[in-house]
Amino acid sequence: MRYIAFATDYDGTLAAQGNAAEATLRVLDKVKASGRKLILVTGRHLKDLQSVFPRLDLFERVVVENGALLYDPLTREQRALCEPPPETFLSLLRQLGVPFEVGRGIVSTWVPHEVAVLDAIRRLALDLQVTFNKGAVMVLPSSVNKATGLKAALSSLQLSFHNTVAIGDAENDHAFISSCECGVAVANAVPALKDRADVQMKSENGAAVAQLAEQLLEDDLARYDSFVSRYAIVLGAPEDNSAGQIRISPYRNSILVAGASASGKSTAVAGILEQMAEQDYQFCLIDPEGDFEHFAGALSFGTTRERPDPETIIKALESPDRSIIVNLMALGMAERPKYFAALLPRILETRAKTARPHWIVIDEAHHLLPTSWSPASSTVPHTLGGTILITVHPEHVSSAALSFVDMLVATGQTAPEALSAFAKVVGIRVPALQTTPDTGQALVWFTRDSGPRLVRIHAAKAERRRHRRNYAEGELSPDQSFYFRGPESKLHLRAQNLITFQQLAEGVDDDTWLFHLRRQDYSRWFEDMIKDPDLAKAAAAIEQNPDLSAIDSRDQIKELIHSRYTAPA
Fold first, then answer.
1. For 318, 362, 562, 564, which has the most beta carbons within 10 A of its beta carbon?
2. What CATH number corresponds to the domain at position 114?
3. Using CA atoms, how far apart are residues 417 and 259, in angstroms rounded to an integer?
4. Are residues 283 and 405 in the same domain?
5. Given this model, what pLDDT does residue 80 score?
6. Range with the lowest mean pLDDT among 48-62, 145-159, 308-322, 531-545?
7. How far apart, in whole angstroms, are the C-alpha atoms of residue 287 and residue 292?
8. Cα separation of 422 and 175, whole Å?
9. Does residue 533 have a cis bond before it (omega within 30 degrees)?
10. Three-class SS of residue 331?
11. Class of residue 101 by CB neighbours under 10 A (exposed 0-12, middle 13-18, buried 19+)
12. Same domain for 406 and 297
């Protein structure tokens, strides 16, 4: 399940004129029976809600007072999520003749008394905010709203907002629905909320809640996947300049990243992982060779000498905000597949309960999931979305594992062979290919589509910094290096990186410098070998300026390099 939590507002959403229809509650009973968690989020006071709605037992958690109080219907425990309103504020409201009700954290009144309320807040210099719910006026600490209340409810259940669908109708539902993976507005919602929502229902009030709940049970809201892009993971952009970006759908796509060593597999995966971390998706990465041990944003278990403890790993996955890297280097090569075969069912058991980890990433998949691997029906589902398999040899990966794959990312010069090997294993035909990917590119094939597309991969920030260091300080191959030869080819000065280039540029004579400048050799090298089109464009402008002297053009190109690569960060 992608959506394991269903959160709904009460007035104007679940209920009309204060009452929830029995038909709607029957559908919510089905949602609860499916193993999902129901959460009620309302601006009402708890006692008021209990007096009008006797079915709080349907819900795992109830957020009342617009996020100020969390209630557990099973244990009847109440937890205040903010400080109570200051007595000085309440006293001033009484003096101003404002009628109001006080909860554990909320002060409630109605229009047009918001003018006096705002005046009281200003006069006392309080850190309070006024929120509207159609005609109702609610006053709370500035950091408290339905979204923070829902976050507390999800945290208490060890669930993630990425696995939550929320539905509402009014002004105070903005933060609430936009904090979730999928935000929905009922047909009777205020226009601004409809504009904010990912999905707009055609029905009103409880009928809309019932309809959404039925759709959740039918297809886990897969029908709305194309509308849900707030937390999108971008793989890259098509090189054919067609509109849009290539996105990965959490919980839907199962991805194979294949290619020869040093072909760009790690770059592609690092770009995906970095976005996962930034968007608070939880991943569990199985790392046999320690290639990802220094990845920021994840806890690493296991070292070159210490075996990762499965109990500790499963315990760590209980926190929705914590991603995990499992380093298998302390295990012998022969032990690793057996270790992984025992760990995977436990990870999937956690996922069945919490819909997490959102992504399971398996490096060296040909070793951990060899051709002999066959999933036990009791531990591995019929479809396995939210997985990334990384391999040099698709033909050596279990056909059972590859049968889940619906997206192939092939890197390097051997990309066509990787596509063909995958297609042969799973028994499908791969379309004819017209090109092979260059550095920073990949052939991306959604297997249900017509054929692969050449895509410019979205590189991770850390990966881009690493490449910058390589170009600045590393050792480019002889074929990639720049050579100062001069007009008569008397020189053969090799610049194997940008620092050496700057040093040699300082020492060569003006005739040699200008010879390469007029031929636009510098911008061509920056474009073709350094892979920096912006640097190349700026250098080309200098090369094409006939008024610049050798000294001036040299200084300007050196400054371009310094500012982009060698200046202190």
1. 362
2. 3.90.1070
3. 9
4. yes
5. 96
6. 531-545
7. 7
8. 44
9. no
10. coil
11. exposed
12. yes
Interval 106-148: pLDDT, tens: 999 999 999 999 999 999 999 999 988 888 899 999 899 999 9
Strands (E), 181-296: 182-185, 199-200, 233-238, 246-248, 254-259, 283-287
What is the identity of the amino acid at 432?
A
State the residue range of the domain holding 33.
Answer: 5-78+145-227
Judge if 112 and 206 occupy the same domain: no
Q: How far is CA 383 from CA 251, 280, 401, 406, in A?
A: 10, 24, 10, 10
pLDDT value at residue 302: 93
Residue 531: partners with Cβ closer than 8 Å, 6 or more residues away: 439, 440, 467, 471
pTM of this structure: 0.78
Please classify residue 473 by burial: count the beta carbons closer than 10 Å to its beta carbon, then call 0-12 exposed, 13-18 middle and 19+ buried: middle
Determine the average pLDDT of the residues in 492-501: 91
Whether residue 426 contacts residue 254, with contact meaning beta carbons closer than 8 Å, is answered with no
DSSP symbol at 397: B
Q: What is residue 243's predicted lDDT score, i.e. its pLDDT?
A: 63
- Residues in the chain, total: 569
Among residues 398, 422, 427, the alpha carbon closest in space to that of 410 is found at 422
Q: In Å, how far from its chain's centre is CA 556?
A: 40
Q: What is the pLDDT of residues 368-412, one digit of tens each?
A: 999 988 876 445 555 677 899 999 999 999 999 999 899 999 999
Computed over every residue of the chain, the mean pLDDT equals 90
SS3 category, 484: strand
Q: What share of the chain is helix, strand, coil (3-state, %, to 5)?
A: 40, 20, 40
148 token code pair: 């923070």
* Residue of 211, 187, 207 whose CA lies nearest to 197: 187
161-174 residue pLDDT tens: 999 999 999 999 99
Q: How many domains does the chain have?
A: 4
CA separation for the pair 41, 55 (Å, rounded): 14
Q: Are residues 272 and 413 in the same domain?
A: yes
Q: Please, which residues have CB within 8 angstroms of residue 385's CB and are 6 or more apart in sequence? A: 2, 250, 251, 252, 253, 254, 404
Among the candidates 428, 459, 490, a domain finishes at 459
CA separation for the pair 130, 121 (Å, rounded): 9
**DSSP-assigned beta bridge partners for residue 255:** 388, 407
As given in the structure block, the two tokens for residue 392 are 């040099």
Tell which of 227, 246, 270 closes a domain: 227
Considering all CA atoms of the chain, what is the largest pairwise distance in Å, rounded to the nearest integer?
A: 95
Are residues 301 and 402 both part of a single domain?
Answer: yes
Q: What pLDDT does 132 receive? A: 87
> Tokens standing for 454?
């050449």
Residue 197 and residue 69 share a domain:
yes
Cβ(68)–Cβ(108) below 8 Å: no
Q: For the chain, how far is it from start to end, CA to CA, in angstroms?
A: 43
Q: What's the rounded Cα separation, in Å, for the pair 356 and 168?
A: 25
Residues 73 and 95 in one domain: no
Same domain for 422 and 552, yes or no, is no
